[in-house]
Amino acid sequence: MKAEGTCKDCGRINEVLSRVGDRWSMLIIISLGTYNVLRFNELKRILGISQRMLSLTLRELERDGMVNRTYHPTIPPKVEYALTPLGESIRAPLRQIGDWALDNLPAIDAARARYDAQKELERESA
Amino acid sequence: MKAEGTCKDCGRINEVLSRVGDRWSMLIIISLGTYNVLRFNELKRILGISQRMLSLTLRELERDGMVNRTYHPTIPPKVEYALTPLGESIRAPLRQIGDWALDNLPAIDAARARYDAQKELERESA
DNA sequence: CGGAATCCTTCACGATACTG
DNA sequence: CAGTATCGTGAAGGATTCCG
């Protein structure tokens, strides 16, 4: 039972947001946006991601049409990854969130400090 | 070992993005943005979320200063949740992603269909 | 009504080893 | 080099029960 009471596309939108909000997908998109083209092990080294997760995440991104995979049948083999136009197009809204995060991290940290201090007081008075 | 090779704030930004990308956090923010004020069980009913996850997620959002919790010591008790200004402020960038998702869902679906069909062909030829 | 505590299952993820 | 396959663990999340 899903019960998306808000709107009927919320499920799909959330699906996309989950993909974007996913740790590795986002970092891969950012990296490819920055370097344009990267090989498998370059991404692996840059992100500090396990082979397994990199392989899985890249496959998802490729399937969703966000990333282009180019296989060069040389020896040793060489595989290059780049953003598709679709992948490029998500960078702008992604940056919006990133900018918001940067702008509001201090506020979030302050809120957390307040919250934790308050809870601490409540616990002492018990 | 975290190894954020991209930028030093990437860890924190990703933290925020994970919160936003999280299924329930996002849906709660959207719901509170739509209805302004909601009680615990109203949110529960609207979202089809378990008590446990709703409680945990609301606490996180409150701690981060995104959501305001108001306790009315009546009988029976009544607790109301609403967005703080900080919570309100994330709605705009969130909408950007939502709009992107809506606009590009057909492209994503098409890409998936292409990908799956291609993989199917490859498997047949084996 | 609005939670907190407990239990239990699933699975996301990393580490490791193997292959073309 | 660029993966796939397998295994083990911790954490996420639902169901249930109890409490102020």
Automatic annotation (TrEMBL), chains A, B:
Cross-referenced PROSITE patterns: HTH_HXLR (PS51118)
Transmembrane segments annotated in the record for this chain: none
InterPro entries in the cross-refs: HTH_HxlR, WH-like_DNA-bd_sf, WH_DNA-bd_sf
Keyword set includes DNA-binding: yes
Superkingdom of source: Bacteria
Gene3D superfamilies per the UniProt record, alphabetical: Winged helix-like DNA-binding domain superfamily/Winged helix DNA-binding domain
Keyword vocabulary terms for this entry: DNA-binding, Transcription, Transcription regulation
Domain HTH hxlR-type: 10-109
Protein name: Winged helix-turn-helix transcriptional regulator
